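Example 309.
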Amino acid sequence: MIERTIVVLGTGGTIAGEAATASDNVGYRAAQRGVAQLLHGVPAVAGLRMASEQVAQIDSKDMDFAVWVPLALRCAHWLARDDVAGIVVTHGTDTMEETAFFLQAVLAPRKPVVLTGAMRPATSLAADGPQNIADALAVAATPGAQGVCVAFAGTLHGAFEVAKVHGYRMDPFASIDAGPIARIEEGQVRSLRPWPAGTSLRAAADLPPPDRWPRVEIVASHAGADGAVVRALLAHGVDGLVVAATGNGTLHHALQAALLQAQAQGVAVRRASRCLEGRVLPAADDQLPHAQGLSPVKARIALLLELMR
Ligand code: SIN
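Predicted structure in complex with succinic acid:
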């Protein structure tokens, strides 16, 4: 019988952070401890082997294509092995929802890929990282689990819906508009809805090198949005624009004029909403396509992958 393995890939974040004192939960440096060190003291899942690999060591505010490409390729490599039951990725919380959506879009895995992190550094009096890793391992070991998800503070969120909604709380993520996939309680995964599924928008192996990705920027509609940012981007050179629109995808008239100009010049434009919940519902006279219910940051990733084709 093949021994089942869970692979833990480290990318940095607060979970790997260190502060000068145990009481400091904000003045720390992220991405100081290696992934193997993070696993010390976390109980192994019975019957499963663990392997770990450091893919990056960054504060996730600095996440970039140069990390995403190797991360996706390492996930694809491990997922292809019969003995690998699932993958856990340790990651900073600030861009975790982007990486989760990106990995789901390029892997659409039939095994679980579980991102986790921490709101407090590893040196904290009450660090949350070890329990979050233990929960993520429990999800990765669950028979039948699949897709990319985020395990955090005892809750499991899907890659499509997950969003960071708080900058300090220990449970900073929410499953916008959908509700969580599961709760993780004492090592048991209590399922609430189906696992994430779908087909990949582009295979990880077909991603271009990081310096050849299209340029897609996010602009926002707001009081006084006069379109100057769009005109500056057009002058600089841009392939796609996602606009964080107001309400149901509405735009300041001056920004709309600039975006229509961009679209007429061949730039792909998508309308997402600034609202945290809900989706932009199409209307008969729409001149700019909506973003299929994606938040602005995820709509940008979808457009990046679309423009690579
Ligand atoms: C980061 O995103 O790398 C730092 C913040 C965090 O992990 O909570």
